[in-house]
Amino acid sequence: MQTFASMSSSNENESKGSFDLELQDVDHQNALQRELTHRMASGDDIDRVSRLSRVLTNLSAKNVEGALDEDDLDFVQSLRRILHQRENDGIVDRSIGILFEDLTVRGIDMGAKALNTVGELLMKPLKLPQAIREARNVQYRNIIEGFDGVVHAGEMLLVLGRPGSGCSTFLRAVAGEIDSFKGVTGEISYDGIDQATMKERYKGDVVFSPEQDIHFPILTVDETLSFAAGIKAPRTRAGNISRDQYVKDVRDILATVFGLRHTYNTRVGNDYIRGVSGGERKRVSLAEVMAGGARFVSWDNATRGLDASTALEYAQTLRASTTIMKNTAVVAIYQAGENIYKLFDKVTVIYAGRQIFFGPVDKGKEYFENMGYLCRPRQTTAEFLTALTDPARVPVRPGYEGKVPFTPEEFVAYWKSSDNYREMEEEMATYKRDMDPTGKLHELMESTKQERPHRFKRKKSPYTLSFIMQLRVLIKRGFERQKGDKAFMASSLFSALAQSLIVGSLFYNITDTYNGAFSRGGCVFFALLFFTINAMAEMALSYPQRMIVEKQKRFAFYHPAAEAISAFLTAMPLRVISMIIFTIIFYFLVNLQVKAGQFFLFLLVLQVSTLTISLFFQMISAVSPTLEVANSIAGLGIMIIFIYAGFLIPLPLMKVWFRWLNYLNPLRFSFEALLANEMHAREMDCTANLIPSGASYENVSIDYRVCAATGSESASDHVSGDRYISTAFQFSFSHFWRDFGIVVAYGVLFFVLYVLGTEFTSPAGTVGDVLVFRRGHMPGDKPKKELEKVAENSINNTDDTAELDPDLQMTEIFSWQHVNYTVTLPNGEDRQLLCDVQGYTKPGTLTALMGESGAGKTTLLNNLAKRINVGVISGDIFVDGKPLQIDFKRRTGYVQQQDLHVAESTVRESLRFSAVLRQPASVPLQEKYDYCERVIEMLEMQDYAEAVVGVLGQGLNVEQRKKLSIGVELAAKPSLLLFLDEPTSGLDSQSAWAIVQLLRKLANAGQSILCTIHQPSATLFEQFDRLLLLRKGGQTVYFGPIGESSHQVIEYFETNGAAKCGDEENPAEYILNCIGAGATAQASSNWYDIWTASSNFRELTAEIEQMHAELAKKPARQVSKELSRQYAANYMTQLKLVVIRMFDQYWRDPQYITAKAMLMLTSGLFVGFSFWHADHTLQGIQNLLFGVFLSIIIGVPMMNQLEPRVITLRELYEVRENPSNTYHWSILLIASLVAEIPYNVLFSTLYYCCYYWPVGFNRSTKAAGYQYFVYSVLYPLYYTTFGIAITTISADAATANVITGLLVCFVVSFAGIFQPPSAIPHFWKFMYRISPFTYFLDTLLGNVLHDVEVECADTEFNIFNPPDGQTCYNYAEAFIAEEGGYLNNPNATSSCQYCKWTVGDNYLSTVGMDYSTDRWRDIGFIFVFIIFNFCASFILYYIYRVSTFNLFTFVKVLFKKKAKK
Q1: What is the pTM of this model?
Q2: Where do the ABC transporter domain residues begin and end (predicted)?
Q3: Exposure class string for 840-871: b at 16+ Cβ within 10 A, else e
Q4: 647: which DSSP letter?
Q5: Tens digits of per-residue pLDDT, 601-652?
């Protein structure tokens, strides 16, 4: 990237005439010229790079705003200007070479392991001794062993090997990414500097670029590249251009180099979020790394997903950077063409973790041919070298049979005894002699001094920007991310607005008398509760970005701590706005103290409290490995926060063993500050609460009556707010600023822990490929070497004359003509993606669909497969000359580019699932199973048929996943056509060859196959029968036969003016070059016009029309009733299989189940012991209400746990299984519910046992059994169906959690907990009656309080004096007869002690509950709510995800039409 930045600045200065075009050192010019000439593979390569340089130079000169067709400028001259400009500006360049000697990386010796399940988890205590022995005797093995070599600054090393051979391990090791390994031995030296020093001080100069494309999917390409350029913008920039100009130039140049300028405003996307194409996403990854300006980069499978031309341009760009700027590149490319291969200086070959060659690229082929192996005609050198790591497939020269090395050890022995090895040793020795560690350190220090700021930065910091400057760039990106995630932002604002209106109107105009005291405390606490639940929901946002932050930390882009701080700061405006909206509406509707001082103090404390609680949950997420674990910890945390805030259990009533939690709870201090702020200086009239009262006491003096209010004083009919909170809660307004300071202090503490947790907690490190088998199916009887070989098995049988499978025979011709496809962009512009495409596939043929990235290959495939549901499609698609019939989807298979599978299913289970649900129902089950076994044999997956899919590293590798993707479609037994989208993407040349050979065998067996492909080698390309070639815009430039040795397609292009194809040139690359495929390449002719004017086009059109005419005469195929159905299996079969698979998924995910269990276990114990042996006093009875409430609130974290999982399952279904008509969408909802319910019932039972008995509830069988049924059976049914219903309308887990918080707070607020039913405004009475929590509280609380005798505590009696001469009973008899309650001292003549309740039913009546009449009625209503949730799940899923009608789009179109009129 340093090259591009310098070029930009140098050309800008050139326009000012500020420098000379010639270098003064002529010898240097000549040396540079010779070096460049030597590096390029051929004259054609020089022309390609020259064209690229011309584009870059012209764009840079105009700040990338000018046209791209300026006059040519010589490439070498451009490089001269770069060097000259940097020298003039005094910029010190730095370069890094590497030497590695006897490099060995150790890891756990595990070629395969058994799958952990819930059953295994339960058995662990019994197997503890065995586990301890295994932990003490962990076996290690060498992942790679004995690697030697040297790569000088300015050189490129190509790494070749099969997946699983150790390529990625080697790349990580030389780049210093070794944390995940158990040990690294040998020497790694960067021009004499040890690896530890380099990674500590110059981490950004030595970088590992992973194979996976991990980006923020909601950011645009422009935002992604601008961020990468901005975070690495140096302090000293050539030409003294501004930082903003630097960022703009780097972004535009990289976007031009990789052909991304047209995607600036398009999201990057991922497998589930629509964005740029897969190839374009890979280019974004490459551009991001180059923007970082690293001097040494190890690239892992860097060209995956790129078309051949773009891959070559990437290699040429890398070549230019290394040659001129002396950068160093170590690159693993699994499918390297010959032109790419020749651009490298050196190559190393890895075979099963052993290095079998290292040396110049021009000696690699010769070395192995001299060994005795034979390179096949038209086989590229890279293919040949990679094939040697599976020597059984490589022919041996005559006379060398039985003499050539075969095992890795034999290859290593041959290598170390060879002259090439001795040459390498001599080069290494020379490199060591020439090393000057002191001088190199000085060079690095001087260069980085110019690049990095001097102020506000640690001297040894490896980052380009200071921490403050990192924050600036990250904050900008944070706001861009918020802008991209409109669903979450809208849901947050709507949640605050809706809740403020709802709760404000619920507590509307609270009376100023004492009757409003409880409601004021309730509404203040509810405000804190609402934002606490919302803050917990935000945890889901942090987990998807973890891998991205970790990657960019390795790139030395920024401190993760800076990202944590920026995330907090960028989220703050949304929180503040939400809070202001909520407070303004809520505060004045409720009628809290209408004083400016009180209002702003309320807003201040609520703001700070919300930020503090948010930081608390972010701290939990920062240190928790998974979201499930975080939700478990947060669930317990929310219990602590609610119980010990001082409202549910006042401080005097807290159990001594947990009272200390009150002081560790920031919400306790927030609640005190807010309640004291509200009650301070408030005098509450208590006339309506005098005891005794009634008609008999109207004329009685106040001296003989008392206010039945906490904090009341004798002979007074008013209660002071300050005295009320002091007596009831031990709160004081004098503590306000102390409390505020403590909340701020807790916020600072949580902030520091959150930042430190983010900085130092990394995701789980990578491990080697490990197959995970079902227990009982481990291949333990196999030798260890054979077990390790399982991960690399491929198809060995490439004999096309093998016996054909009659079940694969097809007879119908699939054709398409005049296919056009247009989409409307967000700005209203129409873009045509396919333009008048036509072609056909015949049974027994293999048709390749090629073109550069973004040309429309996948789009065409999706159109032909009828998988497009947006945009305008026109044209004809026929089967045997007739329109598509209703069974078309049932008769086709579609292998997607992304290998998406259920991670917990085995290979065999995946195939059987597809076969049973997609083959006709009339086929016997055993026959389907037998066919799956034939597919397993055909794909040679026998060795890992019982291995689970897992994740990369802990499951199937890339090749095995691709085979499974193909196998799943073959298991469906498509009778018409098989579509494949990039089946060789990410595979090495041998694996790609194996996959294409498999397709060839399928075609020979009678299958009709249409397949997109990016980087075919010459030999692989020739396996196809026909080619459909597209250029950008979806325009056809060729359709026809490929021919033997590709002569027919080559002849077409040569005849129509293209340059002659060389004998050694790859025909696939040749034709792509001809049409100008690639990021910056341009064709000399318009090949679309040439095609449409050619005789080939006319012949094709006539052939298709004749084909249609002839085939139309054939009688129409009768669609069987069975195939006319959308789904092959009946509904009950679908349900059975999906439910079984779902149960397997849960059983095989013990981490998820453990998180659930721990949440309910710890919460149950905590709540149980917080209310231990609850007293049946007035406050004790009320506390039991809150205890039951907390037991219900636990459903929120349980829903937060299940929602991410259900959404993940939904995404997999919608991306892969639904388009294939595997099963009905409703099955997904039912299966999710059925799989969740048993665990939720089980763990609710666990909670019940830990809570019910410690509290001391009624131990009778009748009461305990009823409580168990409601809480442990009905309530799990309710919150599970409720959570699943929410997932149907949620875009992601974070949005689902926010909606959950909003709706739960909504129904809780009307349940009579915080606002007594009698005080609920008339308008909201209906909500009290339809709130599900009303009935849960009614039935649960009524069951445990019915007939419970109440005994007031000494402090709870209302004490009054009777008139002289009367006893307490005589005086209060009429009052007690009317109001109830009892006198503790009826015969006393003074200090009468009155308790207002005698039994728990008295309290139930105050909150609108009646045990006798409501008990079974409540059960009925609860069933109604469960059924409602269940039905809502289906209705909402259909509206949001099945129905094509979109209300918002309809309204938008309607307004557009009106505007036009």
Answers
A1: 0.78
A2: 126-377, 808-1057
A3: bbbbbbbbbbbbbbbbbbbbbbbbbbebbeeb
A4: S
A5: 999 999 999 999 999 999 998 888 888 888 888 888 888 888 888 888 888 8
